[in-house]
Amino acid sequence: VNNVPPPDSVLIRDYYTNNRQEKYLVPLSLKLEEVCVDDFALADSLLGLYIDGESFSVLSKNYSKNYSIELNGLVGPVEKGFKKGALSSFFKPGLKKGFVGDVINNQDGTFSLYKIDRVYPESYIPFEKVYNRISSLLHREKQEEAKVLSISSFYKEFNIVKNDSIF
Q1: Are 35 and 43 in contact (CB under 8 A)?
Q2: Which residue, of 47, 55, 121, 129, has the greatest Cβ tally within 10 A?
Q3: Are 110 and 36 in contact, with CB atoms under 8 Å apart?
Q4: What are phi and psi of 17, to 5 degrees?
Q5: What's the mean pLDDT in 74-97?
Q6: What is the pTM of this model?
Q7: What is the per-residue pLDDT across 100-132, written as a single tens digit (0 to 9) for each?
Q8: CA pair distance 153, 28, nearest whole angstrom
């Protein structure tokens, strides 16, 4: 096992290329600004105020029960499954920064309005960031193969028969 050489960079690059869609893809995510209130009627009227020209940030600061100065009313980045998919309409193609959706009924009995503050497009984790992880993975796989081969040849060399039926 200790004699197994580390994989070369070509093998590592090939592994990354062949597996990046399944293992190294970062999905589309959004940073959202939230206004969270206890009453649907209030949420609906705040949406009306926003449509009439009121600043979403001002509404968030003045009315949101979750507003904090540190986060400025922002949530995320979040992915499509956030809040059990309640915000999936925000992930439709073509939606951009500034989009405000309908009132969302939260699981805890509150109601929220969300505005897209920032869009993080789908992207791959850069090869340089996962190089060492892939190298370690491939090296461990080769070590495991060497171990299995060594044990198998040890059994053959000394005519050892393994009886699995007693276990």
Answers
A1: yes
A2: 47
A3: yes
A4: -65, -40
A5: 82
A6: 0.65
A7: 888 888 888 889 889 998 988 889 999 999 999
A8: 49
Please identify which residue in the block is written with the tokens 């969300």: 114
Any idea which residue has 């699981």 for tokens?
A: 107
Burial zone of 134 (CB within 10 Å; 0-12 exposed, 13-18 middle, 19+ buried): buried
127-157 and 9-23 helices, crossing angle to 10°: 110
Q: What whole-number distance in Å separates Cα of residue 57 and Cα of residue 59?
A: 5
Kindly tell me if the per-residue pLDDT of 14 is higher than 90: yes
Structure tokens at 94: 């073509």
* Whether 106 contacts 36, CB under 8 Å: yes
The β-bridge partners of 32 are: 75, 116
Residues making up the chain, counted from first to last: 167
Structure tokens, 162: 């393994």
